[in-house]
Write a structure and sequence with these properties.
The chain has a single domain (12-180), classed as Peptide Deformylase (Alpha-Beta Complex). The protein has three helices and eight strands; from the N terminus they run H-E-E-E-E-E-E-E-H-E-H. The chain has helices at residues 29-45, 137-149, 168-175, and strands at residues 49-51, 61-66, 70-71, 74-75, 79-101, 109-124, 130-136, 165-167. A hairpin with a 7-residue loop joins strand 5 and strand 6 (109-124). It binds nickel (II) ion. Nickel (II) ion (NI) is lined by residues 103-105, 145, 149.
Length: 181
C-alpha cells in the first residue's frame, strides 16, 4: 500500500487510450497492489474517484467511492468503494444535466460540464465477476468522468462554455449554487 503521485494535466499518459486488462491479470498480485495504491491515493488526495492512468498506469481500471457525509461536491448520494476493471458504458437517456466537476489531475479548478444523466455501466471486479449498474444524476456524471480518463479524455474537453471554468476559491465565492436560506 502506498500513496502515489497523481499526474497532472500535461502528462502524456493522461491523454492515452488505456489498454484492457487480460482476464489472467485481474486477480494478480500486481493488479491487487495497484488497486490498493489507487484507493490509498484517492483517500489521501480527498477524491471520490481515481483512474489508473492518473497514477501513470495506462490500463482500464478505476476506483470510485463517495462518502455519506459532505464532499467537495456538497452532500451527494453515497456509493461504497467500487473497483471497476474493463468498464463499458451505455447511455440510456441522452437528457443531460450539468455539474461543476473537479479532477485530481487538474488541481485547483472546477468546470461546468453537461453529461447524460442515465447510464448503464458494465465492468468486472478483480475476481473476474461481471457487474452491471444503472446510474442516474450525479453518480452518472462521476462514472462518465472516471471512464473518460481511460480514453484519454479530461473534463475540460467537455466544457462547452470556457467561461464556466474557475478556480476553487472563486467558484466558492461567486459561482457555487446558493443554498436556500
Ligand atoms: Ni478526473
Amino acid at each position: 500500500m502506498a500513496i502515489r503521485k497523481v499526474l497532472r494535466m500535461g502528462h502524456p499518459v493522461l491523454r492515452q487510450r488505456a489498454r484492457p486488462l487480460a482476464p489472467e491479470e485481474l486477480g494478480s498480485d500486481r493488479i491487487r497492489a495497484l488497486v490498493d495504491d489507487m484507493i490509498d491515493t484517492m483517500h489521501d488526495y480527498g477524491g471520490i474517484g481515481l483512474a489508473a492512468p492518473q497514477i501513470g498506469e495506462s490500463i482500464r481500471l478505476a476506483v470510485i467511492e463517495i462518502p455519506g457525509g459532505p464532499t467537495r461536491y456538497g452532500v451527494v448520494e453515497p456509493l461504497p468503494l467500487t473497483v471497476l476493471a474493463n468498464p463499458t458504458i451505455e447511455v440510456l437517456d441522452e437528457t443531460s444535466a450539468g455539474f461543476w466537476e473537479g479532477c485530481l489531475s487538474i488541481p485547483g479548478l472546477r468546470g461546468y460540464v453537461e453529461r447524460p444523466q442515465h447510464v448503464r455501466v458494465e465492468y468486472v471486479d478483480l475476481d473476474g465477476k461481471p457487474h452491471a449498474k444503472e446510474l442516474v444524476g450525479f453518480l452518472a456524471t462521476v462514472f462518465q468522468h472516471e471512464l473518460d480518463h481511460l480514453d484519454g479524455t479530461l473534463y475540460i474537453d467537455r466544457i462547452k462554455d470556457s467561461r464556466l471554468l474557475a478556480f476553487d476559491l472563486e467558484y466558492e465565492r461567486y459561482l457555487a449554487p446558493r443554498q436556500a436560506a
